[in-house]
Each structure stands twice: as structure tokens, then as C-alpha cells.
Amino acid sequence: MNFIVLKKGSIIAILVTIMIITVGTIWALSSKNSYPTVSLSDKTGEKQVIQLVTGEFKSETASGKKIEAYRWDPGTIVVEKEVPVEFRIYGVNGMEHPFYIEGTDIKGTVKKGEETVVNMSFSKEGTYRLICETHETIDRNGPMIAYIVVD
User: What does CATH list as the number for 48-150?
Assistant: First the structure.
């Protein structure tokens, strides 16, 4: 009959490892907090203020062709239905970005170095697109589209 001989230090290390895994598992399973990407106000009806910027990515293909794409950052925003929202859009890259919010009559232009403020509220749930008219498609260095999810 073969016996396994463990030294006192090995037994302690194994017990400590089991204890850490157990505590971590209990903590993970009992945590009831969720951490959303975009936090909504706890006060119902309070105006939400959303900060956005214009951004640009530049790269080069293996053949040496330079490529670039513009975008809104963040690219997805969650807002509450029928709650006033203020979009504060700061122009960082590109000289100007004329935009519209699909499904609404909101239009405007974001200029480099300036902040454009848009106040509105959404009466219907759904996903609305914030679209830059200059960069709507890949062949026009886009698509520069942000998604506004109304919940």
C-alpha cells in the first residue's frame, strides 16, 4: 500500500488556497450590485447630462494605404424615455461634423474645439442613431454613428 506524505507547509498552502477560492465564490455569488456602463440618475425625471466627443482612428494597411475612421465616443448611450437629456458634444477631431438624430427633427454641427449642446427628450422607446452626415459610410471615413438606446 502506498501512502502520500505531505509536509505541514504544503497542507497549510492547500487549505489557504481552498479558503481563498471559497470566499471569492461566496462574494461573487452574493453580490447584488450591477455596474452599468452608463449610469442613470436615481432621481426619476431628473435631466441626464451625457458627455460625448468626436474621435478619429488612423492606421496603415500592409500595402501602405493610409486609412482613417471617425466616431462618436461613447458609441452607445442609454437614456430614459420621457426624461430630459442634455447631450454635450465636444469636437476633438475633424473640422466639423454636421449631424442628425434619426427619428427626430434634431440637427446640428459639432466644430473642432467647440462644444455643441443639444437638449431633448424621447417619447418612444427604441434605438436612435446619431449620424454624422460627412462620415456616414466606410468610404467616407465612417461610419460615424452613435446609438442612443431609449429605455
Answer: 2.60.40.420
